[in-house]
Amino acid sequence: MKCSRTIFLTLSSAALGTCAIQWAPCDPTKFNTTILPFQCGNLAVPLDYTDPANEQKLSLDLIKIPAASGPKLGSILFNLGGPGVPNLRDISLLAPTLLPLTGGQSDLIGLDPRGTGNTIPFNCTTNLADSYTMLTEKVFSNSSDVTLGRLWSRGSIDASLCLENANETGALISTAFVARDLISIVDALEEDGMLRYWGFSYGTTLGATVTAMFPERVDKVILDGVQNPHEYYHAIADFEEWTDSDKVFAGIFSTCIEAGPELCPLAARNKTAQELESDVWDLLDTVKHHPLPVGSVLLDYMALKGMITEALYTTELWPNLATTLDILLHGPESALTALATYLVAGGDETELESGMKTITAIAGIHCGDNLARVSTFKEFQRAVDKLYNISRIMGDVPVSRYAVCAQWKIKPKENYNGDFIVRTKKPLLIIGNTYDGHTPLRSAQNVSQGYEGSVVLEVNGYGHASINLPSKCTLETVSAYWVNGIMPEPGKVCQVDAPPYSGKSWADVFESAGVGSLQKRDVYGGWQMLRNGGRMWML
């Protein structure tokens, strides 16, 4: 890598490096360094990989969680999902979980991808008012009979605003460029030059892209909670992504009945799972037309459905959701006051600003990556109707993003336009959950068909990606892969050791397996901070 005349476009508290990563202790005001000795660093990479004559550099913000034991193996890079989501803080919170899962012998490396955090953040607006409007217009398309048309028109406005205010940045934040950044990090680590990577959700699309672009650099790669990369790049909507969403929604009620009224209050209503689900659909229809005043909060279709769809990510949220639904359906009225406090908790200006940044970054990255466009509302409506037919619970949720992408105007410097029929140097491990409301098992199976020698590990439970399904079997399987390169037998299915409503977590799995030296409270506490911050892996 050429090191002269470096121009840094972003700065952080850690020392800047040009050809090597300069590590230093992380800022304790940003990361809880009392749990693990996190290190932060920077790496200068080409701003524009397509223009060798352009010597401008971009500084990537990185975090490292040092290996817990020896002998030390090669570093593992992570992407927890997105696109548009900064990763550094979330990786630090999940470090007590990720270290045991990887066997503890590797440094874990995370980065804030282009367009997020301080890494040339993508912002389509020039004032707070426009940002707030852009955020608040992102409503679910079935929330009224006029919403879909408004979203289509709003998508045109947003696409034009982004072209006007962020064209230069938007051209530099594609997934193809982030894939090249990953390889730059691998080179700068000065190990063996091979890629070790674990990607979740959108991180699987990034993983599929980097392995397709650099198949000869693959040592060990896990794609976990797999998006369909063909649709991500080429379809007007991610149709396959929502295939099993309704099954997961139904599972909230069927597993509630199985858990019993002591663990799930809805189970005390002497109703079947189907009847409980029907009651909730009726409630959604009621608040759509007549929003419910709950203290100082107006509980409408968006608010209620937002709580439900967030819970599709992880069964850890199901007990609180079931309690909330039971109060809304059956009272008592006195409980609504406490519920109102719960509904407004955490809605400060910082989280609002974070939401704005994420909304625009998702558009900048996903819409730029996606090559599909439609020119008329009628064409777009056909795609939306297909989404509605695929999933009742999720069909209307991502439509606002698709309305922007369908009319996107910024052209990235580089798009990945290849296929995903790949022979990597070493085979990939691909993980899919039996019931995943965001990335169905069939997507893992479809991607595996294109990667020679890859194996699909199925985790039999509800939730998004294996990280949300605590399982001793998964722990043993993935740690054996990272430490010894052992692939599971084709067709292997891991059972879950934290059933819905059980209150069990990865901390219990680690304790029963006798692995990891970290305190149980650190594992649990990291997850709680992640939940409380509203940072779930996004679409």
TrEMBL record:
<feature type="signal peptide">
    <location>
        <begin position="1"/>
        <end position="20"/>
    </location>
</feature>
<dbReference type="InterPro" id="IPR029058">
    <property type="entry name" value="AB_hydrolase_fold"/>
</dbReference>
<keyword id="KW-0732">Signal</keyword>
<feature type="domain" description="Peptidase S33 tripeptidyl aminopeptidase-like C-terminal">
    <location>
        <begin position="395"/>
        <end position="494"/>
    </location>
</feature>
<feature type="domain" description="AB hydrolase-1">
    <location>
        <begin position="76"/>
        <end position="244"/>
    </location>
</feature>
<protein>
    <submittedName>
        <fullName>Uncharacterized protein</fullName>
    </submittedName>
</protein>
<keyword id="KW-0378">Hydrolase</keyword>
<dbReference type="InterPro" id="IPR013595">
    <property type="entry name" value="Pept_S33_TAP-like_C"/>
</dbReference>
<dbReference type="GO" id="GO:0016787">
    <property type="term" value="F:hydrolase activity"/>
</dbReference>
<dbReference type="Pfam" id="PF00561">
    <property type="entry name" value="Abhydrolase_1"/>
</dbReference>
<dbReference type="InterPro" id="IPR000073">
    <property type="entry name" value="AB_hydrolase_1"/>
</dbReference>
<dbReference type="Pfam" id="PF08386">
    <property type="entry name" value="Abhydrolase_4"/>
</dbReference>
<comment type="similarity">
    <text>Belongs to the peptidase S33 family.</text>
</comment>
<dbReference type="InterPro" id="IPR051601">
    <property type="entry name" value="Serine_prot/Carboxylest_S33"/>
</dbReference>
